[in-house]
Amino acid sequence: MLLHFTKMHGLGNDFMVVDLVTQRAKLLDEQIRQLADRRFGIGFDQLLIVEPPRDPDMDFRYRIYNADGSEVENCGNGARCFARFVRDQRLTHKHEIHVETAGGPLVLHVQHDGLVRVDMGKPRFNPATLPFEAPGDQPLHALEVAGETLHIGAISMGNPHAVLQVDDVATAPVERLGPLIEAHPRFAKRVNVGFMQVVSPSEIRLRVFERGSGETLACGTGACAAVASGIRQGLLKSPVTVHLPGGQLSIEWPDPEASLVMVGPATRVFDGRVALT
Ligand SMILES: N[C@@H](CCC[C@H](N)C(=O)O)C(=O)O
């Protein structure tokens, strides 16, 4: 069968977006891995699926798969692309779109300037929510990795994140430590790993080694997790500009009882059709 899709990106974090409201298809893990391959397939960091909601109070169900075929709970850059996609495809005319994800509900606002504002929910620091094996909820946790003791923040944005503060993201050991922390046995469902350089209380640089996709040019939930961790440690103050290799995001978290808010772009690259084998 031929599957219609759209290629999109949020700051270079790229997606294959598939409308399963008007099409019928079932993608197996192996097919997702093939489609994600940058030489033998279409190439993407995540596959985003638009489905009808199961909850009648929601507009859509938003499902996310990493390049390795694993289904995940949340994707921030994907959420912005999702909002642009459902409006461009005329699946909705709303500017405020409510979606259900495996990590909880999200509210997406398509602004008049074309940027998308996402209510990302509250960060969760309880280690059990990631899940992360740790004695209790604390701003930093000691983690033994390859003979070194690292001190990481552990945050759930629906999906799990570890955040490590570094002096300089340009020389941070992302390729070496990223895969080791991602697969650390204390993270039973693996983890996304952020390397954060604090530039000032309102500005960070960030590189993220993503669970199931490797290092990406940007990670929306990673940006939220880094800002939440930095604010909790007293290093940052809302709003914070996050510089990622693919561009910048603005993250607000003015009040610990409030949701984090992310504002950024969403770009459509091309539409295509692919034969599913
Ligand atoms: N790129 C994303 C996060 C995608 C999911 C992540 N790799 C996971 O496994 O949790 C973002 O922009 O948030």
From TrEMBL:
<feature type="binding site">
    <location>
        <position position="66"/>
    </location>
    <ligand>
        <name>substrate</name>
    </ligand>
</feature>
<feature type="binding site">
    <location>
        <begin position="220"/>
        <end position="221"/>
    </location>
    <ligand>
        <name>substrate</name>
    </ligand>
</feature>
<dbReference type="InterPro" id="IPR018510">
    <property type="entry name" value="DAP_epimerase_AS"/>
</dbReference>
<feature type="binding site">
    <location>
        <position position="159"/>
    </location>
    <ligand>
        <name>substrate</name>
    </ligand>
</feature>
<keyword id="KW-0413">Isomerase</keyword>
<keyword id="KW-0457">Lysine biosynthesis</keyword>
<feature type="binding site">
    <location>
        <begin position="210"/>
        <end position="211"/>
    </location>
    <ligand>
        <name>substrate</name>
    </ligand>
</feature>
<comment type="similarity">
    <text>Belongs to the diaminopimelate epimerase family.</text>
</comment>
<keyword id="KW-0028">Amino-acid biosynthesis</keyword>
<feature type="active site">
    <location>
        <position position="75"/>
    </location>
</feature>
<feature type="active site" description="Proton acceptor">
    <location>
        <position position="219"/>
    </location>
</feature>
<feature type="site" description="Could be important to modulate the pK values of the two catalytic cysteine residues">
    <location>
        <position position="210"/>
    </location>
</feature>
<dbReference type="GO" id="GO:0005829">
    <property type="term" value="C:cytosol"/>
</dbReference>
<dbReference type="Pfam" id="PF01678">
    <property type="entry name" value="DAP_epimerase"/>
</dbReference>
<keyword id="KW-0963">Cytoplasm</keyword>
<feature type="binding site">
    <location>
        <position position="13"/>
    </location>
    <ligand>
        <name>substrate</name>
    </ligand>
</feature>
<dbReference type="GO" id="GO:0008837">
    <property type="term" value="F:diaminopimelate epimerase activity"/>
</dbReference>
<comment type="pathway">
    <text>Amino-acid biosynthesis; L-lysine biosynthesis via DAP pathway; DL-2,6-diaminopimelate from LL-2,6-diaminopimelate: step 1/1.</text>
</comment>
<feature type="active site" description="Proton donor">
    <location>
        <position position="75"/>
    </location>
</feature>
<feature type="binding site">
    <location>
        <position position="46"/>
    </location>
    <ligand>
        <name>substrate</name>
    </ligand>
</feature>
<feature type="site" description="Could be important to modulate the pK values of the two catalytic cysteine residues">
    <location>
        <position position="161"/>
    </location>
</feature>
<protein>
    <recommendedName>
        <fullName>Diaminopimelate epimerase</fullName>
        <ecNumber>5.1.1.7</ecNumber>
    </recommendedName>
</protein>
<comment type="function">
    <text>Catalyzes the stereoinversion of LL-2,6-diaminopimelate (L,L-DAP) to meso-diaminopimelate (meso-DAP), a precursor of L-lysine and an essential component of the bacterial peptidoglycan.</text>
</comment>
<dbReference type="GO" id="GO:0009089">
    <property type="term" value="P:lysine biosynthetic process via diaminopimelate"/>
</dbReference>
<feature type="binding site">
    <location>
        <position position="192"/>
    </location>
    <ligand>
        <name>substrate</name>
    </ligand>
</feature>
<comment type="subunit">
    <text>Homodimer.</text>
</comment>
<dbReference type="InterPro" id="IPR001653">
    <property type="entry name" value="DAP_epimerase_DapF"/>
</dbReference>
<feature type="binding site">
    <location>
        <begin position="76"/>
        <end position="77"/>
    </location>
    <ligand>
        <name>substrate</name>
    </ligand>
</feature>
<feature type="site" description="Important for dimerization">
    <location>
        <position position="270"/>
    </location>
</feature>
